[in-house]
């Protein structure tokens, strides 16, 4: 610092200023040039250079030089930076190669074993578990679609208390406080509400709680549970039992409004058994005859040789009449419609001729009396022990759920319920309307809800805990035959969800424990396996099983195309699920106990051996007191059914299921009141008319849909729609039929009045046309006609001569892929459609686009009717790409975007496609699908995880279609080449094939004379669709052979096909 | 060409011929000279005053053109899902409009090329604007094959055979590739033909222009035409050659367009009659469009002297003949559907007649088979106002024909399960209206800035020209 000019000068300077001035230092006050320079230089050292012309040029020079040099430096080798792939490589994980883990899915009080495909730790596709007695490699559509539910971005993601985000621990302490207070009264105010529980562990946990709080109660509520079946068995036998049907041993089956092929946990098993009986090998016609009496058309009804549509309330009377003729005590007879009367004699005669080989199957929607009558009829026909047996129930605690729920609501209204813990259920939406569950909720002190979504119930609860999806949590479940599967997670909970096991453990005695510990401890304590160390440890060690399960797996010859690793350690951690789960499995015990080994085996196989229920001896109660047969009803009957796609509403937010065309109506994105054509004509209704349904002061406004083959004077209402808090997909679509569903009439509601509103409502249907138009698309003959002329189906074809082309036919030297579809056994269950969607990243387009005819399903199941409109025969025809050898689509593409492979596949080159749509126009089967808009969701992160990495995600403006799952073929090709062999038959299963419970779809190499597909194509029933166009389709169909009772159906001349209609 | 009775005819013949002469209007009204022809045609172009009617018409056309712009921008941003197309109806308004516009273009080429070769002098006064119409119609048509694709930014060049590093070529078996060649050839030859014919007139405009800008612009466009004998000789040769090249195009382009359908396997498309039937339909609709344009043109620009009743009559007769061929095509389709005993063909025909689009089918039959029978009557042929209305109907009828062929064949084909209905959206109509706007806007600009009638060719048919020829005799 220099000398100041003088203090005086400063004083003078200060005196000159006006007002108040602040000064920082004497230098500042003096305003010396040095200070000014300092100020100027203080911040960016070179900033002032800009003011100096020479400096700016220098700067530009420097910049130029540095830019040039930066380019030069790019030429030098950059230092190598090593990326570490996995710190600890997960066992068995080869990037690009999917792993399969066994688990199980629970629905409606029973489980189905699954194998879940996992790509680098993310589950992408669900397959059936070939080892599981229900699944045998197949699944239903719900299991297929549940993978989308896992990644649903609308799932609840945080634990909330009155809408505020809270940690799990705060819920624990709050709940514990309440429960401590309840201790005094023994839990008088504590209620647990669950769905039907089929998990032995969960049931044990709850029972333990009930011991600690003896006054507490456990209520189960399943909106479409097997309530009537349960009560029917108690009516007949005095105890709760499950009937197990051996359909493969039956020759004559009577279904009383039962959809045993496509609904319920045993549906897969029964479908398989039915198919085994129905399938035609060689020239042998099938030996089973199925009669179906039903009001709502079901898939089972479509497979029936004789189907009688009846008014819903008349089925009871019909059951009584048949039972009376079979000599069942207590059966009364009532007036029947004329058509039904005509049925009785031939039917009873047929049943009696097949004593011990017949079967009567009652439907879950029928009242308990019909179930009791069916049990009695089976007993009278000598079927018990032959085609029907009885076991304990798969559900852990059978109880009259309807009565229990009513009692709970009464207690809630009385204000005695202090703490209601709802685990998984959504009673506010599903409970009977007259119970006003929502209103009763207000009177409960503390309400907590565990659920996948912040649904209607969560909205009325103080606490909401996000539930872990079954693919995220440990649990266990019994299959319909009692076989236990351990449910193991495939991925760590995406949103920190908790399972019911964890919630119960945390708030009660046990303290916070992982689901893994809870489940494992339960089975350790079960005494199923001794827990002492095993002697022959190395022998029993569950080694990774890298061979496909074909060797041990599917008896019908199917096989899983990939590796099933040992699940014990690796799968337990589920690749990504590792962090917080069971450290016990990671500490390698020097000598694993027998339990450890067994546990590993259970996880690996997906089943706990020896847990199937043995048959149970039951005796029919002598004096069954049955309500008399209902007389002819008045007004209209209404039948409540779970929706074929969204079930009871739990899948309402699942877009795959919303867009899945319901098997018989082909409706998407909505429910409607199904009505028979005759009733519609009488009431002057057409599809899409909005009507008001009134009964007992309750009304419902809903559009009608005419369903051929529907029972007269009956409306079918499907549950699961009209939800308000389902999520972005499911909110506000369809109509909430629970508004009419009172406690007393959960299944069938009588005396309903219908009035037209005059409004119209657009319903998105994917197949408007019902008739075959006389075309020989589906070919049908009776068993007699088939016996007379086995090759009749082929005679309906006008084949073009081989000489039609000037060029020699192309010789397929390597593989020649082909498919055969057996229409005899296809039940139209739709599982294949969802499987295809999941496997091939098929997008969802939404209702407005479906209305416009732009649905994207690569595989559709066509449904055709023939015969009278009120009682038609119904046929299902799965329609994938036919992979024509001379494909009309290929020649018309201007850019060669669809070309033929040397294996006979009609390949689609997405990158080359410009989207002229000529190929689609020229496809006689119309199996091509066009991305009119950007249908794929490119933005939602969670949905990206679900996509199959082996299949291109298509963009806007591109045509797409079925590929015969070429990615699976290529996986198998890699495996085969490594072992220097051909791909074995059954090594490649297309997605539709592997999920099919009836093995209706068979895929394989046509160049392998021993392959199953070649055997099937040798059948005299085999025919190609539209072969007269010389498309030479690789996909062929097996014609339908029906087995009608000559007494009910006069023999028609010649083989039947569409032409007669 | 004034007809003179031959001297060696009998009196009765002479009288009959004279009567016929009197009933046949001349191709140009009497009293015109070289100067009057040139003046009245070029005045329209060179006049500084533009009528309010032109502005009104152009404004409407321009608005429609803006509709086209908005539609195309929306289309490119969103995808062709904004239209009503679906599966099974993969093509609808897009291809209907394409075929319709391409068909309309055909009359221009027929008039310019084929009638030139046949030395039909009446073509002279209508060929210029008919050719312009061709060009504008092709411009409208060519938009659709590109914009109807899902990814036009790729289709724009992938449909052309160009050597590329991927070794990929278009698929030459596809009729769509034939289309690319047919339409692009047609468009370029038509443009060349039209421009070549314009050159002498552009020179006239250059010489008569009053403003500097007009002199420069027309001067550049006239390509240095001085009207020397060598110029005329070369011009005549070039024009004749181009006419020769264009002639097969009249037949080939629409034949190739018809292959888009005939080559497929679809009932209703797969028919051997398509090429001739499409060509006849094209000429039919093209003449209807010429009529639609000629009637107001001669009215508002006072050109009744040049576009006389002779032209109107002849165009009506061509429409009658080609319309009858088209009607024969309909009958043929129906007959062979029945005669083939093929259930799909039979159903296709029954569906057209009785199905959900039956109203369109019967409108089509009403217009193209029944209504045109009115053209037999001279009274109808003399009534210009009525002919204008009828020509509009023919335009609609031919649009409906393409709708019937494309939509009714697609919407119900082989498997009843995939049958569906087609409903156009406002964007479909936007595209149709927009191309009409483009067409009209171009046409308005054309009549304002270029001679709508070939002046130099008109000069060859005034009596003055005849006299000189006779004198040189």
Labels describing this entry:
heterodimer, A: 1061 residues, seven-stranded mixed beta sheet, six-stranded mixed beta barrel, 34 helices, globular, disordered C terminus, B: mainly alpha
Oligomer: heterodimer
* Count of individual beta strands of chain B: 0
Structural class of chain B: mainly alpha
In DSSP terms, counting alpha (H) and pi (I) runs of 4 or more, how many helices of chain A? Answer: 34
Largest sheet of chain B: none
Description:
The complex is a heterodimer of chains A (1061) and B (473). Chain A is α/β, with parallel strands linked by helices and 1061 residues long. In chain A, 28% of the residues lie in helices and 18% in strands. In chain A, strands 5-4-16-15-14-6-7 form a seven-stranded mixed β-sheet, with helices on both faces. In chain A, strands 19-24-21-23-22-25 form a six-stranded mixed β-barrel. In chain A, helix 8 (227-237) packs across helix 13 and helix 11 runs parallel beside helix 13 (368-380). Mean pLDDT of chain A is 84; it is low at 534-587 and 1051-1061. With 473 residues, chain B is an all-alpha fold. Helix content of chain B is 72%, strand content 0%. Chain B contains 18 helices and no strands. The two termini of chain B are 15 Å apart. At the A-B interface, strand 29, helix 29, helix 30 and strand 33 of A face helix 6, helix 7 and helix 12 of B.
Can you lay out the helices and strands and say which pair or pack?
The complex is a heterodimer of chains A (1061) and B (473).
Chain A: H1 7-16, H2 26-30, H3 33-42, H4 53-73, E1 99-107, E2 110-119, E3 122-128, H5 141-150, E4 160-161, E5 164-165, H6 168-183, E6 190-194, H7 200-212, E7 217-220, H8 227-237, E8 242-245, E9 252-256, H9 267-278, E10 289-294, H10 299-302, E11 306-309, H11 314-325, H12 338-353, E12 358-362, H13 368-380, E13 388-391, H14 401-414, E14 419-423, H15 427-430, H16 437-441, E15 446-451, H17 456-459, E16 463-466, E17 475-478, E18 484-487, H18 500-507, H19 515-525, H20 537-540, H21 567-573, H22 594-605, E19 636-641, H23 655-659, E20 667-668, E21 673-675, H24 677-682, E22 689-695, E23 698-706, E24 714-718, E25 748-760, E26 764-765, E27 779-782, H25 783-788, H26 792-795, E28 817-822, H27 831-839, H28 847-851, E29 860-866, E30 873-879, H29 888-892, E31 898-900, E32 906-908, H30 918-921, E33 929-930, H31 941-946, E34 959-960, H32 966-978, H33 991-995, E35 1001-1005, H34 1012-1017, E36 1022-1023, E37 1035-1038, E38 1040-1042, E39 1056-1057
Parallel strand pairs in A: 6-7, 6-14, 9-10, 9-12, 10-11, 14-15, 15-16, 19-24, 21-23, 27-38, 28-37
Antiparallel strand pairs in A: 1-2, 2-3, 4-5, 4-16, 8-13, 17-18, 19-25, 20-26, 21-24, 22-23, 22-25, 27-39, 28-35, 29-30, 31-32, 33-34, 36-37
Helix pairs in contact in A: 5-27, 7-18, 7-19, 8-13, 11-12, 11-13, 21-22
Chain B: H1 11-23, H2 34-46, H3 52-78, H4 93-117, H5 124-147, H6 152-158, H7 175-208, H8 212-221, H9 229-262, H10 274-300, H11 309-339, H12 343-354, H13 358-370, H14 378-382, H15 384-411, H16 426-449, H17 455-459, H18 463-472
């Amino acid at each position: 610092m220099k000398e100041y000019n003088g203090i005086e000068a400063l004083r003078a300077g200060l005196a000159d200023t006006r007002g108040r001035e602040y000064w920082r230092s004497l230098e500042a006050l003096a305003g010396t040039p040095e200070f000014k320079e300092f100020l100027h230089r203080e911040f960016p050292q070179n900033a002032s250079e800009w003011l100096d012309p020479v400096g700016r040029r220098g700067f530009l020079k420097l910049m130029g030089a540095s830019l040039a040099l930066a380019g030069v430096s790019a030429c030098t080798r950059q230092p190598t930076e090593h990326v570490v792939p996995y710190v600890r490589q997960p066992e068995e994980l080869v990037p690009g190669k999917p792993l399969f883990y066994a688990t199980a899915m629970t629905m409606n009080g029973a489980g189905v074993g699954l194998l879940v495909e996992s790509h680098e730790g993310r589950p992408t596709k669900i397959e059936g578990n070939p080892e599981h007695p229900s699944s045998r490699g197949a699944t239903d559509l719900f299991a297929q679609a549940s993978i989308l539910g896992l990644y649903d971005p609308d799932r609840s993601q945080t634990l909330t208390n009155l809408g505020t985000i809270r940690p799990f621990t705060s819920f624990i302490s709050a709940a514990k406080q309440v429960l401590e207070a309840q201790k005094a009264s023994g839990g008088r105010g504590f209620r647990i509400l669950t769905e039907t529980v089929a998990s032995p562990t969960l049931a044990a946990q709850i029972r333990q709680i009930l011991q600690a709080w003896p006054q507490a109660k456990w209520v189960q509520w399943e909106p479409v549970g097997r309530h009537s079946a349960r009560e029917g068995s108690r009516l007949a036998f005095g105890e709760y039992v499950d009937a197990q049907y051996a359909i493969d041993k039956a020759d004559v089956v009577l279904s009383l409004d039962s959809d045993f092929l496509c609904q319920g946990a045993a549906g897969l098993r029964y479908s398989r058994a039915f198919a085994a009986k129905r399938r035609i090998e060689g020239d042998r016609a099938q030996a089973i005859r199925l009669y179906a009496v039903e009001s709502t058309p079901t898939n089972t009804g479509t497979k029936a040789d004789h189907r009688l549509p009846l008014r819903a309330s008349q089925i009871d009377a019909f059951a009584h009449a048949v039972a009376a003729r079979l000599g069942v005590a207590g059966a009364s007879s009532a007036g029947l419609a004329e058509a039904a009367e005509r049925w009785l004699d031939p039917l009873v005669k047929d049943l009696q001729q097949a004593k011990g080989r017949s079967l009567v199957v009652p439907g879950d929607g029928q009242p308990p009396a019909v179930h009791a009558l069916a049990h009695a009829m089976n007993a009278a026909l000598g079927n018990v022990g032959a085609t029907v047996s009885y076991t304990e129930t798969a559900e852990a605690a059978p109880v009259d759920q309807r009565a229990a729920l009513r009692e709970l609501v009464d207690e809630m209204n009385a204000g005695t319920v202090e703490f209601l813990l709802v685990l998984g259920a959504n009673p506010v939406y599903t409970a009977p309307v007259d119970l006003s569950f929502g209103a009763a909720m207000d009177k409960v002190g503390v309400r907590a809800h565990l659920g996948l979504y912040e649904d209607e119930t969560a909205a009325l609860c103080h606490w909401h805990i996000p539930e872990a999806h079954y693919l995220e949590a440990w649990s266990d479940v019994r299959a319909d035959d009692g076989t236990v599967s351990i449910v193991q997670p495939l991925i760590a909970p995406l949103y920190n969800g908790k399972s019911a096991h964890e919630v119960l453990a945390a708030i009660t005695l046990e303290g916070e424990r992982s689901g893994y510990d809870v489940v494992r401890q339960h089975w350790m304590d079960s005494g199923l396996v001794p827990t002492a160390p095993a002697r022959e440890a190395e022998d029993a060690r569950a080694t990774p099983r890298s061979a496909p399960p074909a060797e041990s797996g599917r008896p019908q010859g199917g096989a899983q195309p990939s590796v099933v690793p040992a699940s014990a350690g690796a799968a337990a951690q589920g690749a990504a699920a590792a962090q917080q789960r069971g450290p016990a499995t990671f500490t390698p015990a020097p000598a694993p106990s027998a339990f450890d080994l067994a546990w590993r085996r259970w996880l690996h196989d997906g089943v706990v051996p020896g847990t199937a229920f043995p048959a149970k001896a039951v005796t029919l109660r002598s004096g069954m007191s049955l309500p008399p047969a209902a007389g002819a009803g008045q007004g209209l009957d209404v039948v409540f059914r779970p929706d074929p796609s969204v079930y009871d509403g739990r899948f309402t937010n699942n877009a795959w299921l919303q867009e899945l065309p319901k098997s018989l109506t082909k409706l998407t994105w909505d429910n409607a009141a199904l009505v028979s054509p005759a009733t519609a004509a009488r009431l002057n209704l057409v599809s899409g008319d909005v009507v008001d349904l009134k009964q007992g002061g309750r009304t419902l406004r809903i559009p009608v849909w005419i369903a051929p083959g529907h029972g007269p004077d009956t409306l079918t209402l499907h549950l699961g729609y009209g939800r308000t808090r389902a999520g972005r997909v499911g909110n506000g679509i369809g109509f909430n039929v629970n508004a009419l569903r009172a406690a007393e009439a959960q299944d069938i509601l009588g005396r309903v009045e219908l009035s037209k509103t005059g409004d119209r409502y657009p319903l998105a249907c994917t197949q408007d046309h019902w008739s075959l138009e006389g075309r020989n698309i589906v070919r049908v003959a009776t068993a007699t006609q088939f016996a007379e002329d086995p090759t009749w189906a082929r005679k309906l074809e006008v084949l073009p001569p081989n000489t039609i082309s000037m060029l020699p036919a192309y010789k397929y030297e390597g593989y020649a892929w082909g498919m055969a579809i057996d229409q005899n056994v296809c039940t139209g269950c739709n599982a294949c459609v969802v499987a295809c969607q999941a496997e091939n990243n098929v997008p969802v387009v939404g209702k407005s686009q479906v209305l416009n005819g732009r649905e994207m399903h690569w595989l559709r199941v066509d449904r055709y009717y023939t015969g009278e409109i009120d009682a038609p025969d119904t046929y299902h025809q799965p329609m994938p790409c036919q992979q024509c050898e001379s494909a009309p689509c290929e020649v018309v593409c201007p850019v060669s975007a669809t070309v033929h492979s040397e294996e006979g596949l009609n390949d689609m080159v997405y990158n080359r496609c410009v989207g002229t749509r000529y190929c689609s126009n020229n496809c006689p089967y119309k199996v091509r699908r066009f991305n009119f808009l950007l249908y794929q969701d490119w933005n939602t992160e969670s949905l990206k995880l679900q996509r199959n990495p082996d299949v291109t995600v298509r963009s806007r403006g591109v045509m797409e279609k079925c590929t015969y799952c070429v990615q699976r073929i290529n996986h198998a090709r890699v495996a085969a080449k490594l072992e220097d062999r051909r791909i074995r038959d059954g090594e490649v299963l297309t997605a539709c094939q592997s999920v099919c419970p009836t093995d209706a779809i068979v895929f394989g190499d046509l160049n392998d004379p021993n392959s199953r597909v070649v055997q099937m194509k040798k059948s005299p029933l085999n025919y190609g669709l539209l072969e007269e166009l010389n498309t030479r389709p690789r996909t062929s169909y097996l014609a339908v052979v029906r087995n009608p009772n000559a007494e009910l159906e006069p023999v028609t001349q010649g083989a039947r096909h569409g032409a007669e209609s | 060409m004034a007809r003179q009775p031959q001297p060696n005819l009998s009196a009765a013949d002479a009288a009959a011929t004279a009567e016929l002469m009197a009933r046949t209007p001349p191709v140009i009204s009497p009293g015109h000279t070289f100067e009057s022809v040139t003046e009245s045609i070029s005045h329209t172009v060179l006049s500084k005053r533009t009528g309010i009617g032109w502005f009104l018409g152009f404004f409407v056309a321009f608005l429609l053109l803006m509709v086209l712009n908005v539609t195309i921008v929306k289309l490119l941003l969103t995808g062709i899902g904004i239209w009503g197309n679906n599966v099974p109806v993969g093509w609808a308004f897009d291809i209907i409009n394409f075929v319709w516009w391409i068909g309309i273009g055909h009359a221009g080429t027929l008039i310019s090329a084929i009638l030139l070769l046949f030395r039909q002098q009446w073509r002279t006064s209508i060929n210029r604007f008919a050719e312009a119409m061709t060009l504008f119609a092709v411009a409208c048509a060519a938009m659709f094959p590109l914009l109807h694709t899902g990814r036009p930014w790729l289709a724009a060049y992938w449909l052309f055979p160009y050597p590329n590093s991927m070794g990929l070529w278009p698929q030459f078996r596809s009729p769509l590739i034939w289309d690319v060649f047919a339409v692009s050839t047609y468009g370029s030859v038509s443009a060349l033909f039209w421009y070549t014919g314009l050159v002498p007139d552009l020179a006239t405009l250059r010489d008569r222009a009053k403003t500097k800008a007009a002199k420069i612009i027309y001067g550049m466009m006239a390509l240095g035409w001085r009207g020397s004998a060598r110029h005329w000789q070369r011009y005549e040769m070039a024009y004749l050659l181009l006419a020769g090249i264009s002639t097969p195009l009249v037949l080939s382009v629409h034949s190739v367009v018809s292959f888009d359908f005939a080559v497929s396997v679809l009932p209703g498309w797969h028919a051997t009659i398509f090429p001739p039937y499409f060509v006849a339909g094209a000429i039919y609709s093209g003449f209807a469009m010429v009529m639609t344009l000629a009637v107001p043109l001669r009215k508002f620009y006072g050109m009744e002297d040049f576009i006389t009743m002779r032209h109107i009559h002849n165009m009506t007769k061509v429409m009658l003949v080609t319309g009858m061929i088209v009607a024969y095509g309909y009958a043929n389709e129906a007959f062979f559907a029945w005669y083939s005993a093929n259930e799909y063909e039979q159903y296709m025909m029954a569906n057209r007649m009785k199905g959900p689009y039956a109203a369109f089918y019967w409108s089509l039959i009403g217009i193209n088979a029944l209504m045109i029978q009115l053209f037999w009557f001279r009274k109808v042929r003399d009534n210009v106002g009525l002919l204008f209305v009828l020509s509009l109907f023919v335009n609609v009828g031919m649009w409906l024909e393409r709708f019937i062929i494309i939509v009714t064949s697609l919407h119900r084909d082989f498997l009843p399960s995939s049958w569906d209905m087609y409903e156009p959206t406002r964007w479909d109509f936007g595209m149709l209206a927009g191309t009409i706007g483009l067409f009209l806007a171009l046409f308005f600009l054309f009549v304002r800035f270029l001679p709508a009638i070939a002046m130099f060719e008109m000069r060859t048919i005034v009596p003055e020209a005849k006299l000189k020829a006779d004198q040189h005799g």
